[in-house]
Task: inverse folding
C-alpha cells in the first residue's frame, strides 16, 4: 500500500508530530468526505478506512455487505495550533445529513452511517456541544433529530481501506462525490461554548 498522501506532503500511516491530534469522521461515502477534509488548512493528513465494527481486517466488498458493523471513515490528523477543531466540526456537520441513520442519500447501509470517534476529552466535549447546537438548528428547520454515532476511538481499530480508495477523487476527478453543503450552518463557536 502507498503511504504518501497525494495532496498533502505527508505519510498517511504515521510519523506525524507529537503535537498533532487524530479524529475519525463517518459522513457516508468516504471519497467526497476525505476531499472536503484534506482541504482544511492545518490538516496534516487524511486517509480512508473502516471503523466501528467487529470483523478483523475488513475489506471493501465485505464492509459493503453490512455484516461487519464497520462504517466508512476518514482519519484526519491535524495540528491544533494551526486549525481550530471547531472548523473541522463545521465541515463534518455541514457537509452530510446527520439525521438519516444508516444511509446518506441513495447510499444505504450501516457502513454509510454518520459517526465521529474522538481521541481526546476536549474533542468529546466540543463534539457534544456542537451536536446539540446543530440539532437545534435542524429541528427548528423541521428536520429530524441527529442520529450520529459519537464514541471514544479508544479500543476501536481504524483499518485502512484499499489503496485505490485513498485520495480517490484526485485519482478520479469525475468520480462519485455525494458531499455538498447542507445549507444549514453550525452556530458560531462563541455561541456554542459560552
Result:
Amino acid at each position: 500500500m502507498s503511504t504518501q498522501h497525494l495532496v498533502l506532503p505527508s505519510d498517511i500511516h504515521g510519523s506525524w508530530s507529537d503535537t498533532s491530534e487524530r479524529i475519525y469522521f463517518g459522513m457516508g461515502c468516504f471519497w467526497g468526505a476525505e476531499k472536503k477534509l484534506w482541504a482544511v488548512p492545518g490538516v496534516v493528513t487524511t486517509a480512508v478506512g473502516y471503523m466501528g465494527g467487529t470483523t478483523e481486517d475488513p475489506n471493501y466488498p465485505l464492509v459493503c455487505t453490512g455484516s461487519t458493523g464497520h462504517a466508512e471513515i476518514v482519519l484526519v490528523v491535524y495540528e491544533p495550533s494551526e486549525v481550530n477543531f471547531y472548523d473541522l466540526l463545521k465541515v463534518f456537520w455541514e457537509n452530510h445529513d446527520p439525521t438519516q441513520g444508516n444511509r446518506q442519500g441513495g447510499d444505504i447501509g450501516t457502513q454509510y452511517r454518520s459517526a465521529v470517534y474522538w481521541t481526546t476529552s476536549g474533542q468529546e466535549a466540543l463534539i457534544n456541544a456542537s451536536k446539540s447546537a446543530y440539532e437545534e438548528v435542524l429541528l427548528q428547520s423541521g428536520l429530524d433529530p441527529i442520529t450520529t454515532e459519537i464514541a471514544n476511538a479508544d479500543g476501536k481499530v481504524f483499518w485502512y481501506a484499499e489503496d485505490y480508495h485513498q485520495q480517490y477523487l484526485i485519482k478520479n476527478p469525475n468520480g462519485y462525490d455525494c458531499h455538498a453543503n447542507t445549507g444549514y450552518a453550525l452556530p458560531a463557536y462563541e455561541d456554542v461554548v459560552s
Observations:
- Strands lie at 21-27, 43-51, 71-78, 103-104, 107-108, 114-118, 149-152, 159-160.
- The radius of gyration is 16 Å.
- The first strand starts at residue 21 and ends at 27.
- The chain has six helices and eight strands.
